[in-house]
Amino acid sequence: MLQNTGKLAGCTLFITGGSRGIGKAIALKAAKDGANIVIAAKTAEPHPKLPGTIYTAAKEVEAAGGKALACVVDIRDEQQVGEAVQKAVDKFGGIDILVNNASAINLSGTLDTPSKKLDLMMGINVRGTYLTSKLVIPHLLKSLNPHILNLSPPINLNPVWFKNHTAYTLTKYGMSMCALGMAEEFKGRIAVNALWPKTAIQTAAMDMLGGEDIGKQCRTTDIMADAAYAVLSRPKDYTGHFLVDEDILMEMGVKDFEQYAIEPGHPLMLDLFLDVEAETPVEHGATPASKTPSSSSASNAPIESTFDAIRAVINDDVVKLTQAIYRFDLSGEHEGIWFLDLKSGSGSAGQGEPPVQADVVMTMDSGDFSKMFAGKLKPTLAFMSGKLRIKGDMTLAIKLEKLMGHMSKAKL
Hints:
alpha/beta
């Protein structure tokens, strides 16, 4: 772990979405220096599926050595943000650092993104980041070493990062554009930077997206907390940078990245928006894993043989646990439509349209399909890297991973 230096002692950090996940990890890291932490988030009452509230986070901050102010804030509401900012100034005398951490995610295509979800992402990711920055900046300008840190990615115009989730991408890039513009606008007066993880980080959002087994492909929130601490400890002329957690920590002399792994030694999943070896997992220590040769037997095997193996592992228990019908629209060498019925009777699978409307439609290359069912391509990685498009119920899509686990054990 990156050692605390005391540079944030007495500083006041205003952190949006700081009740859990990366935001809370950054708060606790700064608290060890004796910093003042304003936790601006919506969760005042315990959530049935998500851990922590602004009040439990405040207690952890104080236990770590900092001072805390818990504020109920929906950053889409200008009045709530303004009131929280004023409370922070009244309690701590000013604000030195703003961490725009709050974010909403929905990885669906254009036709499958409800207006409500689009408005949520626009309201939190873009408008919320911009508005909170606007209201905090007058106070940052009075600080000796002010910082704004947006948790958003480098702006990457590779179409692969747009085609499967245009709405989410444009809102995260909106956060990045706030960093880009404000860094130039307030150059010499406020340091404004963006920080993004190289690998997937285990958070409540990641658990919901990837299912219960996704954790072992992730790092802990500690790596983002350490990276943020390194950035926020720098002088205000360090500005206008799009940073990746691992890179900034390597600059600080950190060599052991195993310490951040949920399961040391397990290959890690690269996060969205990063092209470097984006199609492969990352080995522990963040060295890209070797690519599976395209000439592998799984890649070239006819899809029929894959479905023979699928039929072999279908049973009443699988159907009972899954209760879903899947359609696969395959392209490439073995182009065609296939289905998997895990809802009716003892289940069935074959070529052509499913007997009734599918709950989930998966679109991908036939070679990648075979790799996925052979356990050589993780579904979550395939989805996040753009190899797999999913339409329909994401929860049911995740359930299919369990069947793939059986397939992998059978050494397809």
